[in-house]
Specification:
Elements (H helix, E strand, L loop, with lengths): L2 E9 L5 H14 L4 H22 L7 E9 L2 E7 L26 H8 L2 E5 L4 E7 L5
Antiparallel strand pairs: 1-2, 2-3, 3-5, 4-5
C-alpha cells in the first residue's frame, strides 16, 4: 500500500531545484535506493520540476509547485503539480525524429518516460506521476 510520506511546496524558480535535489537524496538514502536507480530518479524528477517551472508556471515565482512522495517496499512514486494551464501531453514532438534532433528543448518528457518505470499525466498535464521500482533486496 502506498502512503504519502513527504510533501513539499516551493516557488517556480530554478533556485528551488537544489531543494528538490536534497529532498530526493534524503529519500533515496532513507529507502536504501541503489545508485543506478538514484540517478534515474534524480534526473526524471528534476526534469519534471524544470518543466513545471518553465512551461507550466512560466517562471512566475508567485505560482507554486508541489512535490509529493509516496513509497512502499521497492516502489517510489513522485507527484509533481504546477499551477499552469496544462498541455497536450499526447502530442509532444518526438525528440529522436531527425527534424527535432538539434532543437535545444523538448527532451524532458522523453527522458522521464525512459528513466521512470511509470509516467502518468493528469489534470490536463498539470500533474505528472513518476513511478520507480527501486530493486532493493527483500
Amino acid at each position: 500500500m502506498l502512503v504519502a510520506t513527504k510533501k513539499m511546496e516551493f516557488s517556480s524558480t530554478y533556485q528551488s531545484v537544489s531543494q528538490v535535489e536534497s529532498f530526493i537524496e534524503s529519500l533515496c538514502e532513507t529507502h536504501r535506493v541503489p545508485p543506478d536507480n538514484y540517478g534515474n530518479i534524480l534526473i526524471a524528477v528534476t526534469e519534471a520540476i524544470n518543466n513545471a517551472i518553465q512551461h507550466g508556471n512560466k517562471l512566475d515565482p508567485e505560482k507554486k509547485i508541489s512535490l509529493e512522495f509516496m513509497g512502499e517496499h521497492q516502489r517510489m512514486i513522485f507527484a509533481i503539480e504546477d499551477q499552469g494551464d496544462g498541455f497536450d501531453f499526447d502530442n509532444v514532438p518526438d525528440p529522436t525524429e531527425p527534424e527535432n534532433l538539434e532543437k535545444p528543448h523538448g527532451r524532458g518528457i522523453f527522458l522521464m518516460r525512459n528513466l521512470a518505470d511509470e509516467v502518468a499525466f493528469e489534470k490536463q498535464g498539470r500533474l505528472v506521476r513518476l513511478g520507480f521500482l527501486t530493486n532493493q533486496p527483500a
